[in-house]
Amino acid sequence: MARRSAIVATGQTDFVARRLDVSIAEMIREAVDRCLAQRDLDGSRVDAVVIGNMELFEGLHMPEQLMVAALGGGGRPVYKLNTGGTVGASVAVMCDHLVRSGLHDVVLGIGYEKQSEGDSQGNITTVGDPIWERSVMAGAIGNFAVMASTYVNESGVTAEQAAKVAVKARRNACLNPHAHLKKPNITVEEVLSSRMLAAPVRLLDMCPTSDGAAAALFAAEDLAPRLAPRPAWVAATATAHDQQFMGDSPRRLADMRSLQAATRTVYRAVGISDPRRDLDVAEIYEPATYAELAMYENCGFCERGKGGTLIDEGVTELGGELPVNPSGGVLSTNAVGATALVRVIEAALQVMGEAGEHQVPGARTALATGYGGNAWTEALILTSERP
Amino acid sequence: MSGVGASADEPLRLPLTVRLPYDYAVGRYGSRFMTALRDEGKFYGTRDPVSGAVLVPPRPINGMTGEHLDEWVEVGPAGTVTGCTIVETPFVDPMTGRQRPIPYGFAFIRLDGADTNIYHFLEASRHEDIRVGMRVEAVFKPRAERVGSLADVICFRTLEP
Amino acid sequence: MAEPATPTASQEVEVTPDGLVYHQVISVPYQYTAGPAQRAFLRGLAERRILGSRAGDAVLVPARPFAPDGSRTGDLVEVGDHGEVVAWTTVPRDGGPVTYGLIRLDGATTPLLHRLDVPAERLAVGLRVRARWAAEPTPSITAIDAFVLA
After folding, report:
1. Are residues C33 and A29, on separate chains, in Cβ contact within 8 Å?
2. Which of A136, A141, A251 has the CB atom closest to B119's CB atom?
């Protein structure tokens, strides 16, 4: 049985719309410094670095080359990933695998995006297939809205229920010092009267774009307890990708096959039979309110079609039976390359007992998910106990 | 720091527009589909020999099953909307550099006979006029204006009264 | 600060014996943020000054926040605008051949990449050159027009 890995330290920049004070390299370094400083470590402890972002957002091919100095990666292996929105979770899974393989004892995972430096709506075109999709793509929002319409039609979730998700997220964000959008007084009415972008998605139903970086340090089983008082053990990981073209399944939200497959794999690995009962907290990758409702169903937190009921009953609020995104989630903070790693980091903070004001009391088992592009999905289970 | 003037801390941004030309080969399967669109005004898909699913866009391999596909089947020209929206947020069409006139309809359409969907525009500008499940048909450009791309179809319009 | 230009793009369809080819041009605007060290370097250029960053005994030009070993650099150091060619190459371009060189300026440890405007027969490693400044230098590497014979 391969040795385990655990997250022993994390760092995040304070996410904002535009970081005009630093270059990309300095922004990454800020997150890395915060991560290492958390345990009073220095860069010499790091054996290898895994870094991810969506390169098209800054138009920099092979950015890791330019940033070796900022990563402190000189002379060390640096692995670069690009899996769209889920890249931060891919980074986490790869860090775990590198440590478990025995090749490296301490691996630093980094996710970042400086979206203010590009035109996100314009350059997301390169995600679309040049033959079949580019000439008709409607940008991230339009594409998402079409899928949301299918889900709404099947499940019957209402705009009010979606608005409750927006309210939960922006209020939770007020308890997270790193979050971008904090709205302590947001109401359902404010969400429902915000500008319609593409039905059913309104402005406040949608995630922001943010500049920022996140870093997490993974250590091998025997080292981890010496580096952190309560490491966040990586109990299980799964990766699932799906479909060749965006139109292969319009029911991509209603029936998220890759999310079902990835979560079932990790639940099985750790013996979870009832995720609503057995998980203490979940940090899921929700690009918009409707996605969060659909993900409740596809992660098995409730029956299919009942995502709206879960938010109505307050189950996923910070004080509820299964808090979802106590950090404020993607709806509050979205630097794409960092976002899925932030889910993993926030899940880790929960089981380490270090989530501060948005700590779920007694959290010992956490789910983190990533979501990107054509329904690419990662799922991880983090635990306080060594598996 | 040695003195560089009062504006040392003011942000400095460097504008750079990257112009990227590409030459994409449409491929054997794509070219056959696009040529039929241009010359016949018809849509085609490929059928999986094991599952029977007809896949549009047509492709040599069904990624989900691994089967090789070489049976061509005509699909459409009518279809069913499986997901739809009215886009109201400004969006610069990256294929033309011009903003698309908003609002406009946008949908997943499952052409009759196909088991998968294509993206395209809907001839609609109000939410009340579109719904999942509505029946639509393709509106083609005149033959002389068709070049062998999805833009040979202007949009899909409702078949319902 | 000017807003980014609107992206422009196009698509042409070509029919070949082997099938269709789509010629697409995607044009995307970016606005890169300079950090403190880069701002100092670029604003220095606008004042016809070339700045490097101290890293131990070395002076790294252009000025930058981090040394290759990942440590933070120290003070800014002004280096001269004269130096010697470390390496060079000439490439054919639409408007005629262009020569690029790595120039180690007096006082700098690392060389700077820039254009060389030097008669072809004089190009050599070790050649002494100096910056030719633009008439109205702006905070950009093009504040230096090219390096010429010293």
Report:
1. no
2. A136
- In this chain, the answer to whether the domains covering A5-120+210-227 and A135-206+236-383 adopt an identical fold is yes
In angstroms, rounded to a whole number, what is the distance separating the alpha carbons of residues C142 and C150?
19
Tokens, residue A215: 């870093």
Which positions in chain A touch C36 (Cβ < 8 Å)? 21-22, 26
With CB atoms and an 8 Å threshold, state whether B2 touches C28.
no
Beta-bridged to residue C116, according to DSSP, are: C99, C147
Considering only alpha carbons, which residue of chain B is nearest residue A242? B64
Distance CA(C80)–CA(C99), nearest Å, equals: 22
- Cβ contacts (< 8 Å) between A69 and chain C: which residues? 64, 66-70
CA of A336: how far to CAs of A29, A83, C38, in Å?
A: 17, 11, 25
Q: Note the pLDDT tens digit of each residue in C80-105.
A: 999 999 999 999 988 999 999 999 99
| 8 Å CB contact between C79 and C51 | yes
Instruction: Tell me the residue type at A339.
Output: T
How far apart are the C-alpha atoms of A333 and A169, rounded to whole Å? Answer: 10
- How distant is the Cα of C79 from the closest Cα of chain B, in angstroms? 12
Architecture per CATH, A135-206+236-383: 3-Layer(aba) Sandwich (3.40)
Contact C68 A23 (CB under 8 A): no
Is residue A57 helix, strand or coil? Answer: helix
Contacts of B92 in chain A (CB under 8 A): 119, 121-122
Reported confidence tier of residue B3, pLDDT bands at 50, 70, 90: very low
The domain tally of chain C equals 1
Range of the domain at C59: 34-149
Alpha helices, DSSP H, located in A214-284: 224-227, 257-270, 275-278
Supply the DSSP string of A294-327, one letter for each residue: HHHHHTTSS-TT-HHHHHHTTTTSTTSSS-B-TT
Buried b / exposed e over A51-64, threshold 16 CB at 10 Å, is bbbbbbbbbbeebb
Asked whether residue C7 is assigned to any structural domain, the reply reads no
Mean pLDDT, range C63-89, rounded to an integer? 94
